[in-house]
Amino acid sequence: MNTRREPRDPAAYRRERRQAVLRHHPDKGGDPDEMLRALDEIDRRHGVTGSAPGEQSVSAEQVAAVAVTTLAGVAAIGLSVAMSLLGRRR
């Protein structure tokens, strides 16, 4: 699991992140993967994030997959409950 800490120099941290976003943002013709790599490097350089040895970070795609699976499960349970309630009324 990643740990999040305050940057050693908050003003420099914000300035560097802003410059990276302006330089690499997809809306400005940049590459989103390069932007994420630049932001990760800035985070590491300023000591904001870090993983314990042997830990892997979680990608946005993994988080999205878990969220979609969870929502599908909730929808299925809701449908099952609704169908059982409707079936009892007969």
Which helices and strands appear, and what pairs or packs with what?
Layout lengths: L2 E2 L5 H15 L7 H14 L3 E2 L9 H29 L2
Antiparallel strand pairs: 1-2
Could you walk me through the main structural features you see in this protein, from its secondary elements to its overall organization?
This protein is mainly alpha-helical. It has two domains: 1-57, no CATH class; 59-90. Helix content is 64%, strand content 4%. It is built from three helices and two strands, in the order βααβα. The protein has helices spanning 10-24, 32-45, 60-88, and strands at 3-4, 49-50. A two-stranded antiparallel ribbon has the order 1-2. α1 packs antiparallel against α2. The longest helix is centred in the C-terminal third of the chain and has 29 residues, at 60-88. It is elongated. The mean pLDDT is 84.
List keywords for this structure.
about 90 residues, mainly alpha, 2 domains, two-stranded antiparallel sheet, 3 helices, elongated
- What is the helix content? 55-70%
SSE run: EHHEH
Radius of gyration over alpha carbons?
21 Å
Instruction: Work out the helix count.
Output: 3
Strand order of the largest sheet: 1-2
Whole-number tally of structural domains:
2
Number of strands: 2
CA(first)-CA(last) distance: 51 Å
Mean pLDDT equals 84
Note the overall shape. elongated
Instruction: Catalogue the unreliable spans.
Output: none
Strand content: under 5%
Structural class: mainly alpha
What summary fits the major beta sheet? 2 strands, antiparallel
